[in-house]
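Structure ticket #2291
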Amino acid sequence: MKRPVLLVLAAVSLGGCDMIPGFGTPASPQRKPGLWEQTVTTERSPTPIVTQLCFDAASDRRLPVLPRKPRREGACQKWQVSKNGDTYVIDSDCGFGGVKLTNHAELTGDFTSHYTLASTITVQGSPDPARDGTHKTTMTAVYKGESCDPAGLQPGQVKLPSGDVVDMAQLRGRLGGGGGRGGGNATGGETNAAGGGNATAGGGR
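Resolution: structure written out below.
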């Protein structure tokens, strides 16, 4: 369970050090520093997946709310991040290791008390045919307070549902960055969540 949960977390966090900002895209909203609790619901998991994250300004920059375009040239035939009123819209069409991932996600919220990411991804050409098709995921993040002490976290750390605490940098390392195999799996695996960048969940059950 640990590996899928890590990938889910990276997905919904929408970050990655292995990516670059898209030209002309909206600036990413900034989360309020402190403790956040994220709940992911998906058709691929029988129960909600809950994680806790501790953000300061530096870790928020490393794992921005809005995705960034993968660095690997040619990985995405389409990459578009726009803002429609108070809603951020992410549309992408990318390929990783022969797997085609078409993603549409909508991000809303005030980013000081809550935000929600509703994602739809279509997977084609997966080595596991059960992962092909269109899948929906919703992630809701709720601000729990300025102090991360109740969760036993320091800025830049994540508590997984298992109770394990990992660094966000370690999480990105397990994913393999935004443009490699991990980036590809991150949009078409375990929960098939979507959201751009690392913006969906991957891994095996």
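Closing remark: The chain has one domain: 2-185.
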